[in-house]
Structure formats: structure tokens, C-alpha cells
Structure to design on (442 residues):
């Protein structure tokens, strides 16, 4: 099947009825510019974590699409997110990644702003402006909506966008597996270590669709599994619980979110894990008991990799982390990765997990290196004159999802495919592009 390399609009690139998608959406500059306007300027985007700005005056410079933004706390400890651009001539008012400050001062002409965004200092205000400049009209540009959900900070530029909780919908259950503590308490996680940042020569959609639920690429990680980088020296991670569970692909086509899930049987015993360290093993055994006591039936659900549309991906279990795929052109992505840990976990546990996280994820992580090699070549293959005449195939598991899935009385929201026997499906990727198409309609 061939798809024209020069379609008339962005949406003609995606044919979900037949499960094919044009390579054009990964390389076309016009499509990319439309994405910035129609997706990144209107969607809820992950910006950072409250633990990165615990005190008044603390700030963390992040991104929303291509825009540099400042997440900060004002003197009253209120959270704000501002466009990192002076209202005079556009220079960054904050050139450091993080820190603490009473004001943000533009290094170009010296305009300065308080941590609540108000313009408080203008050089030569009396002599050059004759005190006629209305400072109240020239404060920093602030996001239209901001939400602090269990410590994760989200924002949108769109005043008319639905609330964050409408945007997330039923996917909240799966996001909670990332943000709640290992012993089942609400929230309670924190970022530890720095944020890893690196550039990948591929379109942002390749990593987003990979993390939304690509079970099919395990062949890529066979060498890592053989090395045994997991906590107990086996595979990539301790897999006992997953191997004894039902495998589920879960998505929300109207919202674009998706994740992998694992559902244990009702009588599943607590699996041994982290056996190379008795102290760590005992801690997680205790956490598992506490989680079962607090969560009951929902403890049966184990999270897997997931993506919140459009570009926030995560791993909810060890290694627990968040990745954001910042768009940097149709052929480039700046990847940022945060690592999460239970705030009240013993220091020995945090140290143990830090070493494991580093060898698993990020630009130096063995697993992520496999993924990047795939994405990089897929990007190159999307650019070729001949290659662009052929679409990519997304047919796997079409029509197999169950919107009313339940197991022994436990109901799960979303469109659910049981991939225990099938091993893999692509319904999550189709859900991602369903939402992508809806927003890209001209």
C-alpha cells in the first residue's frame, strides 16, 4: 500500500481504519509547525515536580513545547509558571537551570520581575520613561492553567482547555501508580538527583509512541537482559510478579493516553525481589504488605510504561521515572528524565535505587541506548525519497480491545486488550494517533 509523500493536510497522513500511518508526519516541517500550534499550545504538559521548588524563591527552568518556562514559588509560596522571556526584547530572564532568587533580571536591558511575575524594576524609569510606563501591563506571561497533582506540576497555555482532571480522565488510576508511594499512600514521591538531558535525532512522536505501550520490541533489549542489570542481577528488572500476571494494553482513544498493565491473580503471593540486598528486600516486602492493606483489590494492578498525551512518558515501577520528549524540530527531540523515589524511604534504599536507575535509563542507561538506536534509524528511514512512499504498519490487534474489562470483579477504565497470549498489540499507538489526528484537523 502506498501513501502519497505530499498529502494535502496533516490528517490524511493517518489512516486508522486500515492501520497505516504515513512516514511524512515524522519529517514534514509543515506538520511539525501545526503540532506546535494545535497540540503543544493547547494540551496539558508536564513541567516539573513540587519537590524541585520546595521554598519561596526556588525556581526550576523547564520547557513547554519549544518554549522555555520558569516553575517557581513566590514569597507566599504559591506556584507559578512563566514564559522565560523578557517583555521588553525577549531575552531569557533566567539563564540557570535551578536555584533561588528574589527577582528575575533580564541581562539585556535590566528589566526585573518578582517571583509572582510582576514587573518591579525598569532602568531609567523616571528619566527615559518619564514614569509613564504602566508596569502592571508588562509582567511575565503566565500559563493559563496550572495543576499540582500529587506533586507533579502540569500546565497549559489554553484558557479554554478542559481541566486537568477532565484531560486525564480515567487514566488517573494508572498515573497514580507512578505518583503514589510504594506502600500505597497518596502522593509522597520526590525527585532525587538531577534531571538528565540529552538530544536524540528523531521526531518526538517516536519515543512517545514507544513508551505508550510497545511490548513488541523486546528483541531490542535481549543483550541487556543477558547482562542482568536488574536489582537482583537478573534481566532488566525483577520480573517474578509480571511473569505470573495477565498482560494488558490499556488506552483512551479520545484522550490519547495509554499504558501497559499487569494484573496479578487474587491469591498471588508477595514476590521476592531485590535479593542482592537483604535490607532493601525487606523494605519492599514491608511496602507490599502495606499497599495490600491500604489498596485491597487494586493492589493486583501493576503498572508498566505509559504516555500521557502528547509527550510525557513514565515508568511507574522500579526504575520509577518520568521522561518528557521536548520537540526541537521535525528531526530532533530533547529528552529530559526525572527520577522519583518515596520521600520517606530509608537513605540506603534511595542510594540503591539511584545506582539501578542510572544503569537502566537515561543517555547512559543500557536500555535507553537500545531504544535510541531504533528511533534514530527510523527517523532517517522516514526521510528517504523511496521510503516516504510507503506507510508504517499499525494493524496489530485491531478490533480486539474491551471497553468493559473486568477480572474477578475488578473493573479497569479504558479500552483494554489482554495480550497475555497474543504477546503484543498496537491499540495504544492507534489511540495516540487518534487524538493526534483530532487535534491536527485544519
Amino acid at each position: 500500500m502506498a501513501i502519497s509523500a505530499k498529502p494535502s493536510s496533516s490528517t490524511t497522513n493517518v489512516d486508522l481504519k486500515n492501520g497505516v500511518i504515513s512516514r511524512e508526519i515524522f519529517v514534514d516541517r509543515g506538520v511539525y509547525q501545526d503540532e506546535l500550534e494545535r497540540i503543544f499550545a493547547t494540551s496539558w504538559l508536564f513541567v516539573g515536580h513540587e519537590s524541585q521548588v520546595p521554598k519561596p524563591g526556588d525556581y526550576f527552568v523547564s520547557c513547554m513545547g519549544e518554549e522555555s518556562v520558569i516553575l517557581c514559588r513566590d514569597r507566599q509560596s504559591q506556584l507559578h509558571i512563566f514564559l522565560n522571556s523578557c517583555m521588553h526584547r525577549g531575552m531569557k530572564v533566567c539563564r540557570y537551570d535551578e536555584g533561588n532568587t528574589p527577582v528575575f533580571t533580564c541581562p539585556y536591558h535590566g528589566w526585573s520581575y518578582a517571583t509572582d511575575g510582576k514587573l518591579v524594576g525598569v532602568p531609567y524609569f523616571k528619566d527615559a520613561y518619564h514614569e509613564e510606563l504602566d508596569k502592571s501591563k508588562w509582567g511575565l506571561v503566565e500559563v493559563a492553567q496550572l495543576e499540582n497533582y500529587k506533586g507533579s506540576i502540569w500546565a497549559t497555555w489554553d484558557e479554554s482547555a478542559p481541566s486537568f482532571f477532565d484531560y486525564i480522565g480515567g487514566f488517573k488510576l494508572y498515573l497514580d501508580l507512578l505518583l503514589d508511594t510504594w506502600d500505597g499512600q497518596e502522593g509522597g514521591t520526590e525527585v532525587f538527583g538531577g534531571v538528565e538531558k540529552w538530544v536524540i535525532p528523531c521526531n518526538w512522536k517516536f519515543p512517545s509512541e514507544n513508551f505508550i505501550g510497545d511490548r513488541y520490541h523486546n528483541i531490542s533489549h535481549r543483550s541487556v537482559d543477558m547482562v542482568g542489570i536488574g536489582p537482583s542481577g537478573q534481566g532488566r528488572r525483577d520480573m517474578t510478579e509480571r511473569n505470573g500476571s495477565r498482560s494488558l494494553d490499556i488506552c483512551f482513544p479520545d484522550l490519547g493516553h495509554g499504558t501497559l498493565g499487569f494484573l496479578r491473580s487474587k491469591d498471588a503471593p508477595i514476590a521476592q525481589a531485590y535479593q542482592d540486598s537483604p535490607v532493601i528486600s525487606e523494605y519492599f516486602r514491608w511496602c507490599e504488605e502495606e499497599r495490600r492493606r491500604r489498596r485491597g483489590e487494586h493492589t493486583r494492578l501493576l503498572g508498566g510504561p505509559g504516555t500521557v498525551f502528547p509527550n510525557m512518558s513514565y515508568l511507574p515501577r522500579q526504575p520509577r521515572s518520568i521522561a518528557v520528549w521536548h520537540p526541537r524540530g521535525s528531526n530532533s527531540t530533547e529528552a529530559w528524565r526525572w527520577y522519583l523515589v518515596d520521600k520517606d524511604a530509608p537513605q540506603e534504599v534511595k542510594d540503591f535505587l539511584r545506582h539501578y536507575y542510572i544503569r537502566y535509563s537515561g543517555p547512559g542507561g543500557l536500555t535507553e541506548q537500545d531504544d535510541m538506536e531504533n528511533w534514530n534509524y527510523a527517523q532517517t528511514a522516514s526521510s528517504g525519497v523511496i521510503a516516504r512512499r510507503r506507510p508504517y504498519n499499525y494493524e496489530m490487534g485491531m478490533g480486539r480491545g474491551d471497553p468493559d474489562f473486568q477480572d474477578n470483579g475488578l473493573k479497569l477504565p479504558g479500552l483494554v486488550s489482554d495480550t497475555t497470549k497474543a504477546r503484543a498489540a498496537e491499540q495504544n499507538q492507534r489511540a495516540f494517533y487518534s487524538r493526534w489526528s483530532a487535534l491536527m484537523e485544519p
Remarks:
- The two ends are 25 Å apart (CA to CA).
